[in-house]
Specification:
By secondary structure, the chain is α+β, with helices and mostly antiparallel strands. The chain is built from 3 helices and 9 strands. The longest helix is centred in the N-terminal third of the chain and has 25 residues.
Length: about 180
């Protein structure tokens, strides 16, 4: 009799455990959205003809999505599916290139290959999985992050916009 009681208790505990896990999955939902920011870069003409650097910053905030904003305290996870950027609206010196470029998100710095600034058709995909995971963890904890672009242009004057896009999946657990 004691053996049957122990088996019943073990069976009940197992069923309860798996039921709670399935119930937890029912209370979760994902929100996938692209969060973009545009950095406006202007480098004035240098009379000596030397390369000039720029630094521009902007903030990416998951809270701009109303559903995420209303559930900030129950975010279970953040995943960055992709991180891309594109150069648009270039005007300036013919043949200008950007070198020594990096994009920073909080404390995570991602080096970028040289960029032909006149090429507005290329979308650059950057970031290793560990870099994207670090950025995602930062966003899970704070819901916003500062994006900083630093680089050097070979010729001046130049003006261009750097559009940075994070494709993010946010998991919300309402219970």
């Amino acid at each position: 009799m004691k053996l049957i009681t122990k088996i019943n208790v073990l069976l009940l505990a197992t069923i309860t455990f798996f039921s709670c896990d399935k119930l937890d999955k029912l209370t979760e939902f994902d929100i996938t959205e692209d969060f973009s920011t545009t950095l406006n870069v202007t480098v004035i003409e240098d009379s000596n003809g030397t390369a000039q650097t720029w630094t521009e910053t902007s903030t990416i905030n998951l809270g701009t999505n109303e559903e995420i904003q209303s559930n900030l305290d129950v975010i279970q996870g953040v995943k960055i599916n992709s991180l891309t950027f594109k150069v648009i609206n270039f005007t300036g010196a013919e043949g200008a290139t950007a070198t020594e470029v990096s994009l920073s998100f909080g404390d995570t710095v991602i080096a970028v290959a040289d960029i032909n600034l006149k090429d507005s058709s290329t979308v650059y995909s950057i970031g290793s999985s560990s870099e994207l995971n670090t950025i995602a963890n930062d966003l899970k904890n704070t819901s916003e992050i500062t994006a900083t672009s630093i680089g050097t242009v070979s010729s001046t004057p130049v003006r261009f916009d750097l559009v940075i896009t994070l494709d993010v999946t946010t998991t919300i657990d309402v219970l």
